[in-house]
Design brief:
The protein has eight helices and 15 strands. With 276 residues, the protein is an alpha+beta fold.
C-alpha cells in the first residue's frame, strides 16, 4: 500500500490511521474535502491532519465510515454530542440516524421463571418482556414423553420404548409452560417427561436439575439474577427474576451508500439475530 493511500489524523491528541478511500465514503463531507486541501479547519502538521475535536467520539465516526453502520456500546449515552460531531464533519446521514435516539438506546429486558415443585410432575412457567427472547428459548427447550412401567423404572436410561417430543405450551408470545417428572397413568404404567435444553444434550427428569440447567443457560446468555421469592407457600411456587440490557433493534443501522456516490444516503434498520 502506498503512502498516498494512508491518512494520519490527530483528533484531540488521539492518533488515527486509515485509508483515504474510507474518508471519501461521503464526497460532500468535510473529511473528503480535507484530502483535497479544501477545508481550512484541518491543518496538516508534519504529515498529519490536526483536528481540534473530541478524539474519543471520532473513533465512532471512523467506525461508521469503515462499516457504514452505527454500532455503539450498550453503556453509550453521548448521542447528542456524537450527533454534533457528525454534523461538524458533514456526515448528515449519520447525524440523522443519531437523532433517532429512541431506536439506538438499549433497553432493560426482564424475564421470570416460576417453578412449582409441590408434587410430580414439576411445573415451569417462563415470562419475558421480549417475545423474541421467549421464542428463542422455546426453540432451545424440548420435552420428551413416553410411558414407562414400574418394573423397568430402575433399569438404565434410555428405555426400550421411544420417547416422543412434545410442543411447549405457549399461552402468549411472552410466556411458555412445560413439565418434567412422572405422572401416574393406569395400572403398572406411568408417563415420564424429560426436558432437554440446548446446547446441553442431556434429558433430565428431575425438576431441580432442570431448574439448575435453565438458570445456568440464562446466565450464560447475559441475564443477571436479581431476586428470588416464594410466590405461593401452599403451592410451593418459587419465582426467579432476571434482567439484562438488550440492544435495540435499531442499534445497528445500515446505510445504503455506495463508495464514491453522493452524500445523500437512505438508512434502514438491520435485522437482529434471534436471541441477540
Amino acid at each position: 500500500m502506498s503512502n498516498q493511500e494512508l491518512v494520519v489524523l490527530s483528533v484531540g491528541g488521539v492518533r488515527f490511521v486509515t485509508r483515504a478511500s474510507t474518508l471519501q465514503q461521503f464526497p460532500e463531507s468535510r473529511l473528503a474535502r480535507m484530502l483535497k486541501d479544501d477545508d481550512r479547519e484541518f491543518k496538516l502538521v508534519n504529515g498529519e491532519f490536526f483536528v481540534d475535536r473530541d478524539g474519543t467520539l471520532f473513533s465512532y465516526i471512523l467506525d461508521f465510515l469503515r462499516t457504514l453502520q452505527v454500532s455503539l456500546p450498550t453503556d453509550f449515552s453521548d448521542y447528542q454530542r456524537l450527533q454534533r460531531e457528525a454534523e461538524f464533519y458533514g456526515l448528515y446521514p449519520l447525524a440523522d440516524l443519531l437523532s433517532q435516539e429512541h431506536l439506538l438506546k438499549p433497553r432493560l429486558e426482564i424475564l421470570e421463571v416460576h417453578f412449582s415443585f409441590q408434587e410430580m410432575p414439576s411445573f415451569f412457567r417462563i415470562f419475558g418482556s421480549c417475545s423474541t427472547t421467549v421464542e428463542t428459548l422455546a426453540e432451545q427447550i424440548t420435552v420428551f414423553t413416553g410411558q414407562q412401567s414400574r418394573q423397568s423404572w430402575n433399569t438404565p436410561f434410555p428405555s426400550q420404548k421411544p420417547l416422543v417430543p412434545l410442543p411447549l405450551e405457549r399461552p402468549s408470545h411472552h410466556d411458555m409452560t412445560f413439565q418434567c417428572g412422572t405422572d401416574y397413568s393406569a395400572g403398572d404404567q406411568f408417563v415420564a417427561r424429560y426436558v432437554s435444553i440446548k446446547p446441553d444434550n442431556r434429558k433430565l427428569i428431575n425438576g431441580t436439575n432442570v431448574l439448575g440447567l435453565l438458570l445456568d443457560t440464562l446466565l450464560k446468555d447475559g441475564f443477571r439474577l436479581i431476586s428470588t421469592r416464594t410466590v405461593s407457600d401452599e403451592e410451593k411456587i418459587e419465582c426467579y427474576s432476571f434482567e439484562r440490557m438488550k440492544r435495540g433493534a435499531g442499534l445497528t443501522v445500515t446505510v445504503n451508500q455506495t463508495p464514491g456516490s453522493s452524500g445523500v444516503a437512505q438508512a434502514k434498520r438491520s435485522q437482529v439475530q434471534k436471541g441477540k
